[in-house]
Design goal:
CATH superfamily: dinb family like domain
Radius of gyration: 18 Å
Strand content: under 5%
CATH architecture: Up-down Bundle
Number of domains: 1
Number of helices: 7
Order of helices and strands: HHHHHHH
CATH topology: Four Helix Bundle (Hemerythrin (Met), subunit A)
Number of strands: 0
Distance between the termini: 48 Å
Oligomer: single chain
Helix content: 55-70%
CATH class: Mainly Alpha
Shape: globular
């Protein structure tokens, strides 16, 4: 592994491990629960992450561009991905693992080239954005999933699953 990418790979691996822990012991009811009718369920989030992870992997492996416009063909591909939580999680795991394998074998210069190819239609603030965009995206939804799981517990009179006794949150007082 290119030593210049070691921290990026470590970050991506750590985020993945935390994301997977957040899904441990999840029930089918939790997977499909929405805090509001128009809100995301965990199943929807995992489907979304699967699609995006496959795009990121294709960018890194083959230099494919990140989709910029939603063409009819792209929309058909997106629509063909069902809400099969287990299948989507497995496909997400495979795509993320493939992305990490490719990233481990990259050089910093190669990552810069693949980033330019992937985001040529997008403004990017970093010449190596492709190396950490996937992990940032996953981390954002990791937090969303933890929040949904906490809300699911609380709406059933149970303590929050993640940090139920965090002293930095007030206990019933208006803040």
């Amino acid at each position: 592994m290119d030593q210049a990418l070691e921290v990026v790979v470590e970050m991506a691996e750590s985020i993945w491990e935390g994301f997977r822990r957040a899904l441990e012991d999840i029930t089918p009811a939790e997977v499909n629960w929405r805090p509001l009718p128009e809100g995301n369920s965990i199943s929807l989030i995992v489907r979304h992450l699967r699609i995006e992870a496959q795009w990121h992997r294709a960018c890194l492996e083959r230099g494919e561009p990140m989709p910029h416009e939603t063409t009819e063909n792209l929309q058909r591909q997106i629509d063909s991905v069902t809400l099969d939580y287990d299948g989507n999680l497995k496909a997400l795991e495979e795509a993320y693992a493939g992305f990490l394998r490719e990233l481990r074998g990259m050089t910093l210069g190669g990552l810069k080239e693949q980033t330019q190819a992937a985001y040529k239609a997008w403004p990017s603030s970093s010449p190596h954005f492709l190396g950490f965009h996937q992990a940032m995206h996953l981390a954002t939804h990791w937090g969303q999933i933890r929040t949904i799981r906490n809300l699911y517990c609380k709406t059933r009179g149970e303590p929050a699953r993640f940090f139920p006794d965090n002293p930095s949150y007030p206990r019933g007082e208006a803040g």
